[in-house]
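Q: Can I borrow your eye for a moment on a structure tokenisation matter? Would you mind producing a protein record, from residues through to fold? Write it directly below this note and I will take it from there.
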Amino acid sequence: MSTRPEFDAGPGRPPGPGPGRAPGPAPVSLAQRKRQLVATELTEAALQLLALKGFDAVTVDEIATTAGVSKRTFFRYFASKEDVVVQFLADMGADMRAGLAARPAGERPSEVLLHAVSVPLTICDAHADRALPVVRLILRTPALLARFLEHQARWREDLTGELAARLGRDPRADLYPRLAAGMALAAFDAVLHRWSEGEDAGSSADPGTLIGEAFAVLAPALDSVTP
């Protein structure tokens, strides 16, 4: 499971259209499609087993067996079971950065950042039955939480650079881009923690609603500094 619809796996995934890239899917060979299918099966099996049984209770052998592949095949795609979750986090960051870069010029910083952090939240909410257990796994497993925090630091750098370029500011001399990116990610983190507190996907607060509430608080500060 990744943050993409249908939870397609990260490894071997063809890039989607973006700024400066011609629309339409790039040609995908049969071998690439096969790799994507195997990666998807491994990701699904790993994340669901880990979420169900706990990180320490699941072995690579069990993941491979559930996915219908060999242990050797697993290691062609991932260095460890932890790397499956790391890829899930990497997908979240890629979605945020792409979401920010795709926004039209002229939008307020609060609008741009709200859209960026909403992209992975919206996809997770659409697949809440599968995504919510994985989010809980990450937040409640010390080793995975540490990796999550590492990724947040990278996301902050990515969003800082994108926002600075958008506003024509130098992040080395101007505090605003980094502060704004940090505020947006703090809201994202708070929403994930609040969402994970519900008893099940149906009773958990809607991430889209929660992030909207968070940005209602942040927007005055984010928009107080004009480009």
